[in-house]
């Protein structure tokens, strides 16, 4: 395994962002989904850094990245601007960007908004609720899980239940300190991100016309609504959906196999 080359705090707009940089070569940014903590990608980042520069980071107001004063809301597009701003400040743009779940939406938005700085986007298990035939039904599958967790442990309990639901058997591979930070991000997750991220709707014409190479991925054990969202994006790109090992967070379940699939999709 590679060690972290640098752990940096980078000023991006109104943020002091925490980032870790591994390896050398073409740049690849890994965008975290719910919980916002970059360490969920630790194992797969080490594997991918054998022949490229891999950047992981904590998203706005999550974990080791700062929370601006009086900040109470965010959007997918703001998160995309943060991600690209980080790449620029690190001197690693243009880059490829990978995102999982809500991180996939951020990666897609980054590609649509900043084609100068993002030359390739890998969009894995996108939570693109706005394009589903039955978005309420999709959300209904997870709401009881969150509610049950909150009944037992408040917002952190809801975050833990949600993370266990999303990660499946991969949950036990998450570092303990990352889990602790993610549970500490529960207020951000439920009060600032959850509703805003679920309502994000890209312009179909922008998805179709983007000059960026956009690859859509789902897990072998994906849920129907993730597959539906992935097909919606792929149909507008005229491409097929690529299947990756595992479930929603397959990079935790089998990082070696997952890294091999991602590496094969990159130049």
Nutshell version of this structure?
The protein is an alpha/beta fold. Helices cover 46% and strands 18% of the residues. The chain is globular and about 45 Å long.
Describe the protein's architecture and organization:
The chain has 267 residues and is α/β, with parallel strands linked by helices. The protein has one domain: Alpha/Beta hydrolase fold, catalytic domain (Rossmann fold, 3-Layer(aba) Sandwich). The protein has eleven helices and eight strands. An eight-stranded mixed β-sheet has the order 1-2-4-3-5-6-7-8, sandwiched between helices. β3, α1 and β4 form a beta-alpha-beta unit. α1 crosses α11, α2 packs across α3 and α5 crosses α7. The radius of gyration is 17 Å and the shape is globular. The mean pLDDT is 96.
């Amino acid at each position: 395994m590679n060690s972290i080359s640098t752990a940096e705090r980078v000023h991006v707009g109104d943020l002091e962002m925490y980032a870790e940089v591994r390896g050398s070569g073409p740049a690849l940014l890994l965008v975290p989904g719910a919980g916002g903590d970059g360490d969920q990608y630790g194992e797969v980042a080490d594997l991918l850094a054998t022949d490229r520069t891999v950047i992981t980071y904590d998203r706005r107001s999550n974990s080791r990245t700062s929370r601006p004063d009086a900040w109470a809301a965010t959007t997918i597009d703001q998160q995309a601007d943060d991600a690209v701003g980080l790449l620029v400040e690190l001197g690693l743009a243009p880059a490829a960007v990978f995102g999982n779940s809500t991180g996939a939406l951020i990666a897609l938005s980054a590609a649509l908004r900043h084609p100068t700085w993002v030359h390739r986007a890998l969009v894995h298990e996108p939570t693109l609720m706005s394009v589903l035939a039955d978005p309420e039904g999709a959300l209904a599958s997870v709401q009881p899980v969150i509610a049950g967790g909150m009944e037992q442990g408040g917002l952190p309990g809801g975050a833990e239940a949600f993370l266990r639901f999303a990660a499946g058997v991969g949950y036990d591979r998450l570092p303990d300190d990352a889990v602790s930070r993610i549970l500490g991000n529960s207020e951000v997750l439920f009060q600032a991100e959850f509703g805003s991220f679920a309502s994000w709707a890209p312009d179909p014409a922008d998805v179709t016309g983007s000059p960026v190479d956009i690859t859509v991925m789902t897990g072998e054990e994906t849920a129907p609504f993730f597959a539906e969202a992935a097909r919606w994006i792929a149909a507008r790109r005229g491409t097929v959906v690529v299947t990756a090992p595992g479930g929603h967070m397959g990079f935790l379940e089998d990082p070696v196999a997952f890294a091999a699939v991602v590496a094969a999709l990159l130049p």
